Amino acid sequence: MTRSAEWTQLLMAPATTTVDAGARHRVGRHLAAAVGELVHGLPPGDQVVVTLPIVRRAHLRPDLLPVPDEPFAWKPIFVRRSLGLAVVAACANGRMRTPAEAVGPVAAEAVAEWERTGWRTFHWEPWFAGLTPGAQAMVLADAASWATSLWCSFEWASLGPVAQVGGLNDQWICPAPRPVRLKARPEIQVPLTTARQPNQGREPDRLAVALVSLSGGIPGDGWEEELSYLALVAALRWSARPVPPRVMGLWPDAGRHHTVEIDEGALNRAADRVISTVSALVDVRVPGERESVTSVETA
Amino acid sequence: MLVMDGDCSTEPFAVVGCGRASVARGTTNPVPGSAHPVTAPSHHVAWHPLAGAALLERLRNTGRPRPRSDPDFAHILRDRLEDGLSLDAPAGGDRLPPHTGPPAAVPGSPSPRSLPLVVTKDRLTRVLACETHCLSPEFGERTPTVALACGAMIDVLFRQLVCQGSIGDPMADGLAALAVDEHQQDLVSWIERMPRGDLQELRAEVERQVGGLRRRWPALGPSWMPRTQESMRVGLAGGAVELSARVDLAIGKPAEDEASVALVEIKSGARRPDHRADLHFYALIEAVRNPAPPFAVATYYTRTGELDVDPVTEELLVGAARRTLAGACALLRGAGGPDPHRHPNALCWLCSSLPHGDPGPARVGARRLIAAPGRRAA
Q1: Could you say which of A134, A139, A145 has the minimum Cβ distance to residue B228?
Q2: DSSP H or E segment with residue B275
Q3: Which residues of B fall within a CB distance of 8 Å from A152?
Q4: DSSP H or E segment with residue B318
Q5: B245 alpha-carbon distance from chain centroid
Q6: Do A152 and B290 touch (CB under 8 A)?
Q7: pLDDT tens track for B309-346
Q8: CB A137 to CB B179 under 8 A?
Q9: What is the residue-level pLDDT of chain A in tens, covering all 299 positions?
């Protein structure tokens, strides 16, 4: 069996776990209480944004956590994922055969659409359009290589037309004295069947979905909580939908994959990682708060 | 990463390469336009660089059967590396100093976790030449030179050619491509401040090499799944050691039953013995991270159009593992702080890493030169 066939099979296997509404509620309440204590000392109007890269960095390199008000500037790496996902979607729906073939036309279509309507589907269109051909080539090359890694990881015919590539970010705003936004963006969402309830005849929104996350580098020792973070945000954001029962992480640089089956324990561990991440972020902004942060963590 | 040695403006084909050497030895000498390499009948046959379909065929057809997908052999390679490193690497990397640059200081922030020892092809080559290199504060760094600038430009222009199929004004495209890479800001700034003469020299060499690429490098169909600047990583010793490479071009679909990927490194300078070792290092990482090794690793010399192709075999991979292990252990010893093993040799007089009067210069009886751009031995 090829690696892509193996990974596809693992991703699409019937779900074996479920999380009930009570468990979901308990996790959300625990998270809100702990995070609320942590951000209490932040200045009014301040907010905290948590994403998967920030969760990782807080664990491995807290010294590199972003400080507020860092000026934003577009770079090829910021375009790579959104363009790469559009490229994979174009291949998955049969418009294009391979990422290398798709990347130029997909980028050109996005720019043309922005020029025609003013609507920025990806936000980078004006920046990309203003680049010289040499710089544009690097952006396209980055996106093509990224998309090729994802495209080659699965058997797309087996994933079927219901697999959603990209899509909107999940976001949950934690009720706290200062806004704390948890953001998550899986690369792929695939509806699953469960052992007891085949998905035929059910509304798409009521189906449990498996999530796929693609990362660079080598999986660190906190990969399980990091993958569970994606399920946690989806669970808190979409209270009427089933909690994603599975998250698969891919690290193409290292040729590695890991899968987490999501149960209440996994959500709790992810919530604890969020709490320690917010603690580190608050620490960067308000060094004097360190003592109170520690006491909340250990309480 | 591309490195060009010495003067950029030397004649094309001035370097003795595999083409000429092969002809002299009467071995295979691929002919442009030919679908298959042919045997050179005599040493008087003129050597021509491969182009187009012939170049592609040379990459595709190594003359050996492609390696089968063999997870057991990949495990053996990994185990051999793990076993060797377990004798040197502290558990969990707790005592390893950072090797990816000092962390930025953020007041009041917790300390970063221990960083892995990152083993790259350049670090391997340098530490195996002489462990003294580890002591240099510039270890792993590159000082801008005309040659380095040319290499970086050719690197991005090659990428543009592979992905877009064309290059406009080489200097303009190359500088624009480097400018959007945050890691190249120092080099771009250095190029912009170059004296006029040096800049003209750089432009001439870049244009000449791009001309060769345009004439010879074949268009790769989308079905070849070309990936440029592909990052490859393998974590070892519980995360304490990381083998890391970024290959200029990977082609071929992921392996099924047999190897189907070829790795190509682009060099804008002259052939050096360590280039082949670099390729073998890439092959090793690919073999350990994926179900099958690459079937071929190759270096393409843009200055001359030479193409060195190594078919990947078990022997090659075992040799690469042995060398990588030796280098990684040497790096660990260097990182641990004890006096490094010194291997004085004839290149020491060019080395800016060695303090004045160290055994290398003494042995060769040479006066140590003041380090000049492009004159670094290590």
Answers
A1: A145
A2: helix B273-289
A3: 225, 253-254
A4: helix B314-336
A5: 8
A6: no
A7: 999 999 999 999 999 999 999 888 875 565 666 666 66
A8: no
A9: 788 999 999 999 999 888 999 999 999 999 999 999 999 888 888 889 999 999 999 988 888 787 666 678 899 999 999 999 999 999 999 999 999 999 999 999 999 999 999 999 999 999 999 999 999 999 999 999 999 999 999 999 999 888 999 988 899 998 888 899 999 999 999 998 754 454 444 554 568 999 999 999 999 989 999 999 999 999 999 988 999 999 999 999 999 999 999 999 999 999 999 999 999 999 888 765 444 433 333 32
Which DSSP category does A143 fall into? H
A34, A57, A284, A292, B360 from A62: Cα distances, Å: 20, 6, 9, 18, 42
According to DSSP, the β-strands at A188-191 and A209-214 are antiparallel
Residue type (1 letter), B142 = R
Query: How far apart (Å, rounded) are the C-alpha atoms in residues B231 and A78?
Result: 17
Half-sphere exposure of A71 (CA within 13 A, CB side): 1
Place of tokens 């890479």: B181
Closest of B339, B357, B361 to residue B348, by C-alpha: B361
- Kindly determine whether residue A254 and residue B235, on different chains, have CB atoms separated by under 8 Å: yes
**How far is Cα B266 from Cα B281, in angstroms, rounded to an integer?**
15
User: What's CA B309's distance to the chain center, in Å?
Assistant: 14
**CB pair distance less than 8 Å for B173 and A103:** no
Q: How far apart are CA B17 and CA B21, in angstroms?
A: 6
Count the neighbouring beta carbons within 10 Å of the beta carbon of residue A206: 12
Structure tokens at B63: 């003359």
Cα–Cα distance for residue pair B107/A284, rounded to 1 Å: 7
**Cα–Cα distance, A242 to B84 (Å, whole number):** 48
Q: Mutate one of A78, A95, A148 to test the B interface: name it (highest B CB count within 10 A).
A: A148
Positions in chain B short of pLDDT 50: 1-40, 91-111, 364-378
Q: Does A291 touch chain B (CB under 8 A)?
A: no
For residues B352 and B371, is the Cβ–Cβ distance under 8 A?
yes
DSSP state of A247: E
Q: Can you tell me which residue has the tokens 């912009």? A: B192
Domain range summary for chain B, segments of one domain joined by +: 71-98+113-141+222-333, 146-210, 344-378
Kindly report the backbone phi and psi dihedral angles of residue A50, in degrees, each rounded to the nearest multiple of 5, phi listed first.
-115, 130
A175: left (phi over 0), alpha (psi -120 to 50) or beta: beta
**Chain B: residue whose CA lies nearest to A147:** B227
Looking at residue B373, what is its pLDDT? 38
Task: Please give the structure tokens belonging to residue B299.
Answer: 């270096």
Q: String of b and e for B54-89 (b: at least 16 CB within 10 Å)? A: bbbbbbbebeeebbebbeebbeebbeebbebbeebb
- What ipTM did this prediction achieve? 0.88
**Is A2's CB within 8 Å of B256's CB?**
yes
Exposure string over B332-354, b if 16+ CB within 10 A, otherwise e: bbbbeeeebeeebeeebbbbbbb
d(CA B194, CA A188): 47
Distance CA B122, CA B144 (A): 16
Separation CA A144–CA A84 (nearest Å)? 6
The number of CA neighbours under 13 Å toward the Cβ of A138 is: 25
